[in-house]
Write a structure and sequence with these properties.
By secondary structure, the chain is an alpha+beta fold. It has 21 helices and 22 strands. Strands 1, 2, 6, 7, 8, 9 and 20 form a seven-stranded mixed β-sheet that branches. The chain has a six-stranded antiparallel β-sheet with strand order 14-15-16-17-13-18. Strands 11-10-19-12 form a four-stranded antiparallel β-sheet, with no helix packed on it. Strand 1, helix 1 and strand 2 form a beta-alpha-beta unit. Helix 2 crosses helix 12, helix 3 crosses helix 4 and helix 12 crosses helix 13. It is globular, with a radius of gyration of 26 Å. The two termini are 51 Å apart. 48% of the residues are buried. Bound molecules: flavin-adenine dinucleotide (FAD). Flavin-adenine dinucleotide binds next to helix 1, strand 2, strand 12 and helix 10. The site of flavin-adenine dinucleotide (FAD) has 36 residues, from helix 1, strand 2, strand 12 and helix 10.
């Protein structure tokens, strides 16, 4: 038996684990990443794409804290699209389809270049606690004991994972990988509340057997916008996607075989993702729809595999083959690998603090799909936060967290730890009540300074960020100070209401139909601004009136977030709280009065009783 020691040990080399390990090491913690196989570090288990609406916001936030996901996606990207381009900046979502192999290579190269990070191909089988209940070591399958100041578990769909294809069931973490059973047992022994969820993936097709000429093709953006702020330009050749759809014949085939679909036959008990349903689910739930759109996404530049986005399924293989043949353009398409569903254990995230540390097992952090989320970006963002916190704990620094007014990452962690999950959680812009503030375009301005203070942002990004932030501040100050009377603006070719009121340039920029060329002529310094700075000035102009109206509300939220609730508070001992309120608050264990107000079902009367109690205790 070997014995090793690290400040931070991360278990799992998926999107959460790689980001956690990189973040802990960036903070200076001596970090070990344990994962089954080195060649699957950065593996995309499902769709070959990073970002999108809501998810793209998370990727930009990861980037703002100097994480690796956005840089890897830029290095591997073969089709970029800014989703919702015609809508306001708050809901625009940057997305990149990636060459699956290049993405893995990029993640592996970024990790290899990270000082203070060691990676070993070992499975974790157990956890060791000290007499005080603190997790102090990871026990590996080969008998190695690895002592740790903090441990982060990011095992994705692997805990007691089981694949379903029709009537066939197979223990697996994902296709081709064994499940993690020993670790699941060890986590259960810690008393963690474990539940079952499921997710699924579509069959992969051989692109050489698709009739592309019969399909509508969709190019990416003519000028691909990088996901990372540190990427100067996208270097890869860009490819198009095909668009097709299911047919009424295909739907009839699925209906006739529902008794063989594990999610309908009762073979699968776990709940699947609402926003990413299987095709058999869609056919049942939206029975009146004759077609469902399918995007045919190439998985790589030198790989013929195509990912048909929109038809994840666990129907038996023979039904999958007949169904694929019913789709226009796919009559002769060969299936390289059938679709499948996977059921796995996850932990009820209400067992976690806002730092993602397990409340009942100090020293242990959880991140990613194991917390009941779905998606690479959700996993990576949690991984980054858990990695920062593991390094902080190991180094004796206070916990790090982000609030709902600061980041989508803050919204997600708040939702998870207070409300728990009843189905795989996915990031959506609708979940963020302050989304005018939390834009994908201003993630750096919102978070990089905080990241510098936490020690997770390198000097190159820090210098670039500070120069940019100063440029934005100067441009905004100038746009507030300069302007003109209606007569002067009119004379410059800028149409404006002739009410005699002087207007700042910021106000003029917010007007919907202002002639951009006339503005640039009247204020040549505006035209000379670097594009990124101008975007910030325009977004500020657009949203400033709404944001100043929200200012009082934001101040109140911040005050409530400062009213912390002691960790071991006995809710049963608070006078005036009903049994139901005690139960709800006891299950979620909010860290602040603000958090208590967001626990589903907690009444204003219960909040008032809690506030009075906290005031008395202080
Ligand atoms: P993973 O990426 O799964 O990584 C887990 C890592 O942990 C792996 O590297 C594994 O080797 C390692 N590991 C596990 N146990 C141990 C151990 N004991 N010791 C050492 N290492 C260990 N997301 C969507 O958004 N939409 C979808 O449609 C979708 N469909 C999916 C379909 C399938 C079949 C699967 C498998 C996943 C799907 N996902 C989907 C989810 C997406 O893949 C995950 O959300 C994301 O990969 C989670 O990242 P993670 O880091 O939490 O876990």
């Amino acid at each position: 038996m070997r014995d090793m020691n690290f400040d931070v040990v991360v278990v799992g080399g998926g999107h959460a684990g790689t980001e956690a390990a990189a973040a802990a090491a960036r903070c200076g913690a001596r970090t070990l990443l344990l994962t089954h196989r080195l060649d699957t570090l950065g593996e995309m288990s499902c769709n070959p794409a990073i970002g999108g609406v809501g998810k793209g916001h998370l990727v930009r936030e990861i980037d703002a804290l100097d994480g690796i996901m956005a840089r890897a996606a830029d290095a591997a990207g073969i089709h970029f699209k800014l989703l919702n381009r015609s809508k306001g900046p708050a809901v625009r979502g940057p997305r990149a389809q990636a060459d699956r192999k290049l993405y893995r290579q990029a993640v592996q190269a970024l990790l290899a270049a990270q000082p203070d990070l060691t990676i070993l191909p070992l499975a974790a089988e157990g956890l060791e606690r000290d007499a005080a209940g603190r997790v102090v070591a990871v026990l590996a399958a080969d008998g190695t004991r690895i002592g740790a100041g903090a441990v982060v578990i990011t095992t994705g769909t692997f805990l007691r994972g089981e694949i379903h294809i029709g009537e066939t069931r197979l223990p697996a973490g994902r296709v081709g990988d064994a499940p993690s059973v020993g670790l699941a047992v060890a986590m259960e022994a810690l008393g963690l509340p474990m539940r079952r969820l499921k997710t699924g993936t579509p069959p992969r097709l051989d692109g050489r057997t698709i009739d592309w000429a019969a399909l509508e093709m969709q190019p990416g953006d003519a000028q691909p916008e990088p996901l990372s702020w540190m990427t100067e330009r996208i270097g890869n050749r860009q490819v198009e996607c095909g668009i097709t759809s299911t047919t009424p014949e295909g739907h009839a085939l699925i209906r006739a075989n529902l008794h063989r679909a594990p999610i309908h036959s009762g073979q699968i008990q776990g709940v699947g993702p609402r926003y990413c349903p299987s095709i058999e689910d869609k056919v049942v739930r939206f029975a009146d729809r004759e077609r469902h759109q399918i995007f045919l996404e190439p998985e790589g530049l030198d790989d013929p595999t195509v990912y048909p986005n929109g038809i994840s399924t666990s129907l038996p293989e023979d039904v999958q083959r007949a169904f694929i043949a019913s789709i226009p353009g796919l009559a002769r398409a060969v299936i390289l690998r059938p679709g499948y569903a996977i059921e796995y254990d996850h932990v009820d995230p209400r067992a976690l603090k806002p730092s993602l540390e397990v409340r009942a097992a100090p020293g242990l952090f959880l991140a990613g799909q194991v917390n009941g989320t779905t998606g690479y970006e959700e996993a990576a963002a949690q991984g980054l936060l858990a990695g920062l916190n593991a390094a902080a704990l190991a180094g004796g620094a206070p916990p790090r967290s982000l609030g709902r007014t600061q980041a989508y990452l803050g919204v997600m962690v708040d939702d998870l730890t207070l409300q728990g999950v009843s189905e795989p959680y996915r990031m959506l812009t609708a979940r963020a009540e302050h989304r005018l503030l939390l834009r994908a375009d201003n993630a750096g301005l919102r978070l990089t300074e905080q990241g510098i203070a936490w020690g997770c942002v390198g000097p190159e990004r820090a210098a670039r960020h500070r120069a940019f932030a100063q440029g934005v501040a100067e441009a905004l100050a100038r746009a507030r100070a300069e302007g003109g009377t209606p007569a002067a603006l009119q004379a410059a070719g800028i149409a404006i209401n002739q009410d005699g009121r002087w207007r700042s340039l910021l106000e003029v920029l917010a007007l919907p139909e202002t002639d951009a060329a006339a503005l640039d002529r009247a204020f040549p310094w505006l035209a000379a601004l670097p594009a990124g700075i101008r975007t910030q000035v325009e977004a500020e102009a657009l949203y400033a009136p709404y944001l100043s109206r929200q200012a009082a509300e934001l101040r109140l939220i911040e005050k409530e977030e400062r009213a912390s609730i002691p960790e071991g508070l006995d809710f049963a001992a608070i006078p005036g709280l009903s049994n139901e309120m005690r139960q709800r608050l006891g299950a979620a264990r909010p860290a602040t009065l603000g958090g208590a107000g967001r626990v589903a079902g907690v009444t204003p009367a219960a909040l008032a009783a809690l506030a009075v109690h906290l005031r008395k205790e202080r």
